[in-house]
Amino acid sequence: MSNQAVEIQSDVHLVFSLSDAGSLKVTFSEIGKRRENLVLAFNDLFSIGPIKNLDSREGRQMRQRWFMERFADYSLNHVLNEEHQLEHMLETLAGIPETKPITIWCGDNAHDQTGLRFVLHVLKQREQPIRIANVSELFSELRPEAEVLVPPYAQGLIEKNVYREMVERCSRLKLLDASTRRQYESEWLALSGRDHTLRLWLEGEVIGCEEDRLDASILKAVTECEEMSDEDGFVKAGRVVTNVFEHINQLVGDAFINYRIWTLISDGYLGFRGLPVALHQYAIKVLPRNEDFERGVQSPKHIISVSALVKNAKGEVLLLRTHWRSDTWEMPGGNVELGEPLDEAIRREFLEETGIVIRPIGITGVYCNASKQVISVVFHAEYVSGEIQIQPEEIIEARYIRLDEHNIGQWITRPQQKSRTLDAMKAEEMVPYETWEVNPTYNLLGRLHHHS
Questions:
Q1: What is the DSSP track for 93-121?
Q2: Coil, strand or helix: which one is 286?
Q3: What gap in Å lies between CA 180 and CA 203, rounded to an integer?
Q4: What digits encode the pLDDT tens for the residues 218-237?
Q5: Where does the record place the Nudix hydrolase domain (predicted)?
Q6: Which ranges in 249-290 belong to alpha helices (H)?
Q7: 230-257 confidence digits (pLDDT tens)
Q8: Distance between CA atoms of residues 337 and 345, nearest Å
Q9: 303-448, superfamily in CATH?
Q10: How many helices (H) and strands (E) does the chain have?
């Protein structure tokens, strides 16, 4: 937005989504006030992701990296809407004359309310006249007779004629006093001082939560949708996301719910079929929990998985990110098929996921996930041939990364993945591994035993 546009228009309006900006511009045009009102929009989602030191370049880079690691299309959207990104918007705010009034539009949701507190923090040194147009509160004032349990929590949920009344009245809203502004500023400092990456609007305030806070709501939505499904219990992921938002009354975005769905798939709570590219291309269902196993009635059954540490000539480790564990990098690998020797399994999985042919040398560690009954075997292996060529339906990205004890947490975020990778990097000796065939005679098919 040019400084000339800021100078020409007498009032500035700030919203926290491009959709809200479009609605506001159209409504100003309908009431004949478009020319004198400048509408600015952030294209971000403040209810998710880190917000610590967000007014600094380092803080914004940390936030950007968090999004890039979890959402495959984030980089493209970031480039396409550059003028609405944090960096550019902060420059735009700084260029607004201090005498020009700013109306900040928001609703009773953690996204808008966190954004509101951030903007007031950014403007704390300025004597800017500021109004807050809270559409949830304005709805209750304009429609006190409305029979709703909860007022609309976002602008997009408000009927057009009611929203038009809000826009017509916004210039008559009271200016924020100094005490209220200081309260919002201190609330921002408290919010941004925590490490939460999910924020919800609960009982009239923004509450920082663990990322899995909405997982129970997702599982409940899948179960409800399954009851109306005639496709072997599988339901379209998009239908599940719609059900979730109908019940939680929170603004956290489709992409975040999709990310949590894939976390639940990874953790063994959900099964899926289809292509993990978009919500309309795959279906999910709740996997049965083995109560008999938990009571000790059945014989124990475990899943065996394999992975391998492979370095290039520079000593860099080959890591990848999957669609269902997009929050972390990890060593390539996968589950062992029935009757498949472990060393053959890791050769196959490595080739399928990365296009690289490897030679297993030995085992560096064995790890048990007691919750999912998974035994993970980690190999040390050597590069043989091939160039990186990923399976796009499963793998987001694969590349060689220089890892050490100090930076590993920046790449591998899950503690169980981190510990087994460190063990493999430090291993000086390998555990012997043999494959035997016993039917009926004993036949040694292969043996790995390596000393450094």
A1: HHTS-TTS-EEEEE-SSHHHHHHHHHHHH
A2: strand
A3: 19
A4: 999 998 888 776 567 789 99
A5: 301-438
A6: 254-266
A7: 567 789 999 999 999 988 999 999 999 9
A8: 7
A9: Nucleoside Triphosphate Pyrophosphohydrolase (3.90.79.10)
A10: 16, 17
Residue 278 has pLDDT above 60, yes or no: yes
Return the amino acid letter for 447: R
Name the pairing type of β-strands 303-309 and 317-322: unpaired
Number of CB atoms found within 10 A of residue 238's CB: 16
What does the alpha-carbon distance between residue 82 and residue 31 come to, in Å, rounded to a whole number? 30
Closest CA to 319 of 385, 387, 402, 393: 402
Distances from the Cα of 228 to the Cα of 100, 233, 240, 260, 363, angstroms: 55, 9, 12, 23, 47
CATH architecture of 211-286: Orthogonal Bundle (1.10)
- Determine the Cα angle at 322 with ends 274 and 58, to 5°: 135
Name the nearest CA neighbour of 116 among 98, 126, 130, 101.
130
DSSP helix/strand/coil, 202: strand
| CA distance to 131, 153, 190, 198, 432, per residue, from 183 (Å) | 15, 22, 11, 22, 63
Domain with CATH 3.90.79.10 in the chain: 303-448
Tokens of 159: 């009927």
Q: Could you read off the pLDDT of 135-164 as tens digits, one per residue?
A: 999 998 998 876 666 789 999 999 999 999
Backbone angles phi, psi at 196, to 5 degrees: -65, 145
Q: Answer yes or no: pTM beyond 0.70.
A: no
How far apart (Å, rounded) are the C-alpha atoms in residues 332 and 314? 19
Q: What angle do CA 296, 297, 300 make, to 5 degrees?
A: 60
Rounded to 5 degrees, φ, ψ at 130 are -130, 135
